[in-house]
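REQUEST ID: PR-0412
SUBMITTED BY: lab tech R.K.
PRIORITY: routine
TASK: structure prediction, single protein chain
INPUT:
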Amino acid sequence: MDVALAISRRLEEFGLEQRDLAQAAQVTDSYISQLLTGKRTPPAPSRTSKRGTREAGGPPAEGAVEERTGGRAHAVVSGSS
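STATUS: complete
OUTPUT:
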């Protein structure tokens, strides 16, 4: 699977830019650029950490709902201002 091509297509599909993905993934714009140009390879699944309470084995925070994006579940707080 060509990860760079898959990421590029999804960014285009959702009308997002590399910096949007970098911000959401909590990485630098440079890292995303390097992934998309093939200068870096994505980390192996065993090397990635899952963030958030739910992924750490606990229940979602009170008032949170789960949202699925790209096949992954993310806790999203609902009703907060």
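NOTES: The first strand starts at residue 64 and ends at 69.
REVIEWED BY: pending
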